[in-house]
Write a structure and sequence with these properties.
7 strands, alpha/beta, 46% helix, two-stranded antiparallel ribbon, five-stranded mixed sheet, 287 residues
């Protein structure tokens, strides 16, 4: 799994975010899966390759749905920041391992249950590769055998291309990410409070590659800010920090090139629309 996928896993792995994803994408917004009924599931399974050695395979996010102490379903979400032509084979391997583990439960502690795997495509283009085992095969079976072929299909959701109607069904932290990707005007208007600020910020960093998001994490994870940090707070801190670094860089560059104090003062006033007092204060800090 790539670094981006790993970072996205942090937000998707929050139970409230996971439950909302399943409810909106699978059940059209109906609250079928409740956060309180979810329990983290296994993310590791083993398989044997052609070298006859055992290898490890890792899922991104896995949650059991429990009722009265019994497992009723296993939901799995796979984050993809790149489009992988062999993803249907990987998902079939994950699901096969999950079903096999039910067969191996000889005490029959739990009744058998369905296993679901959904792929979240976070890339900036719609998924254009295989979504079923048959599509992923280089050598196709004879068409006459198709009715007997277990053509496991892999549901893919193109997260950057969800319709407005679907996006508006999200009310939790993932709505911030979706609005950032698709409707930034709505993002600012709603000024949503972040329940999981660090996870949101890290996902924004994964999507943009901008390290300034990571630098802002300490500002939003202190106990004093818990439950109060909004999207506009984040954007303001990002802008202020970027602006401050820009002012500092311009002053140091002017100094390196031998500009006078007065000339540099005029330049930063002009470039950043500063008052006399603000510009002078910055000059005292960085000259």
């Amino acid at each position: 799994m790539g670094e981006k996928d790993h970072t996205q896993k942090m937000l998707i792995g929050c139970r409230d975010v996971f439950a909302e994803l399943i409810n909106v994408l699978v059940y059209s917004g109906e609250k079928v899966v409740n956060e309180a009924d979810l329990l983290a599931g296994p993310t590791e399974s083993l398989y044997i390759e052609a070298d006859k050695r055992t290898h490890q395979q890792l899922r991104d996010c896995s949650m059991y749905e429990l009722h009265n102490g019994e497992i009723h379903a296993l939901y799995n979400l796979e984050n993809q920041s790149t489009i992988d032509a062999y993803m249907p084979l990987r998902c079939a391997g994950y699901d096969g391992a999950a079903y096999r583990s039910q067969c191996n439960d000889r005490k029959n502690t739990y009744k058998t249950y369905p296993v679901f795997t959904f792929v979240l495509n976070w890339s900036r283009k719609p998924w254009n590769k295989a979504t079923s085992i048959l599509e992923a095969l280089h050598f196709k079976p004879n068409p006459a055998a198709y009715p007997y072929f277990n053509n496991s299909k892999m549901p893919v959701f193109n997260m950057c291309f969800l319709s407005k109607d679907v996006r508006e069904k999200f009310q939790g932290d993932l709505r911030i990410i979706l609005d950032y990707l698709c409707d930034r005007e709505s993002l600012l208007k709603r000024n949503q409070t972040m329940k999981h600020p660090e996870e949101v910020i890290r996902m924004l960093h994964a999507l943009t590659g901008d390290d300034q998001y990571l630098n802002s994490i300490p500002l939003f994870t202190s106990p004093a800010k818990k439950g109060e940090s909004t999207v506009c707070d984040l954007i303001n801190s990002y802008y202020t920090k970027g602006r401050r670094e820009g002012i500092q860089a311009l002053i140091l560059a002017c100094k390196d090139f031998g500009c006078s104090f007065e000339n540099t003062l005029a330049r930063i006033k002009d470039s950043f629309s500063l008052s006399d007092d603000e510009a002078l204060e910055d000059m005292k800090l960085y000259w």
